[in-house]
Amino acid sequence: MVGAGISTSSGIPDFRSPGSGLYDNLQKYNLPHPTDIFELDYFMDNPKPFFTLAKELYPGHYIPSPAHYFIRLLHDKKLLTRHYTQNIDCLERLAGIPEEKLVEAHGTFHTNHCVDCNKFYTKEWMKEKIFGDVLPVCEECNGIVKPDIVFFGENMPDHFYTKPLEDFDDCDLLIIMGTSLEVYPFASLVANVKPNCIRVLINRVAIDKFSGRDKKRDITFLGDCDDAVWQMADVLGWTNELKDLWKRESSLFEQAREKSDNNADQEAKSPRISKNNSR
Ligand code: CNA
């Protein structure tokens, strides 16, 4: 089970870290309250702050961290039952964790729907709107099209409710990384494992709700997720494998990113027709 802390070393801020977290850095959006950016009612009145943030967070800019590749290694070695994530950055998919092993509890930028008529739109369609600074408006009914990110008060995806029933009874080690465990119902999953399952929390700061819960089986590693996975890789004898995987994949992403930056530079030099849309 993971949260925003596994992606901070990739350059994506979390929500709640004082100073660097998104909630401390949303002044430019003039929100009455920081969490309004993920409130559906606020979004329906004023979708611009969300789409400005979406442009910053949009998948494609960031490269998965060693923590993501450690989870990929667990999968490659057939040790991963499932990966439950609160993150919306799609870095697990980029790290090669297959869709059937993922529960993206708070949704994803991968798919998009009209909030009024529910028409589906592809991620390529949405990306063009977001990066063109154009409000994504439904071609059928003129409603706003929203990435399938779960906003406060919205239902979680169906598999968030079905997969734990398959997974948690059989789980013999629950690794929880980079999360404040503040957001429910996701946080409540930690209680779903059987009493003999070891639970390891890896986080920069202690989480009261977790620490001391059950001293016989709960372990807290206070520190960075990447440091923790390198240490685990070391004791498992996987250091070289993790290093090779991380280096190989990261250099492929760097090459792709350079190529796309060069293409964007070329495009910027040629005149473009404005695609501004009014609603
Ligand atoms: P959070 O409440 O911001 O908590 C993150 C936790 O991670 C904090 O306790 C930090 O101390 C800790 N942390 C930060 N960096 C590291 C690190 N390198 N190593 C170890 N610990 C670290 O975020 P949660 O994920 O718990 O909250 C759930 C929200 C955050 C979900 O709804 C997400 O959609 C949302 N979110 C996602 C992203 C993303 O997709 N990358 C980014 C920001 C927020």
Describe this structure in words.
The protein is α/β, with parallel strands linked by helices and 279 residues long. 33% of the residues lie in helices and 13% in strands. The chain is built from eight helices and eight strands, in the order αααβαβββαβαβββαα. The chain has helices spanning 40-45, 48-57, 66-76, 91-94, 123-131, 158-167, 225-236, 239-269, and strands at 83-85, 102-104, 107-114, 120-121, 145-149, 173-177, 198-203, 218-222. It has a three-stranded antiparallel β-sheet. Strands 6-7-8 form a three-stranded parallel β-sheet, with no helix packed on it. The chain has a two-stranded parallel ribbon with strand order 1-2. A hairpin with a 5-residue loop joins strand 3 (107-114) and strand 4. Helix 3 (66-76) crosses helix 8. The longest helix has 31 residues, at 239-269. Residues 270-279 have low confidence and may be disordered. The chain binds carba-nicotinamide-adenine-dinucleotide. Residues 3-5, 7-9, 12, 14-17, 21-22, 86-89, 106, 178-180, 182-183, 203-205, 224-225 line the site of carba-nicotinamide-adenine-dinucleotide.
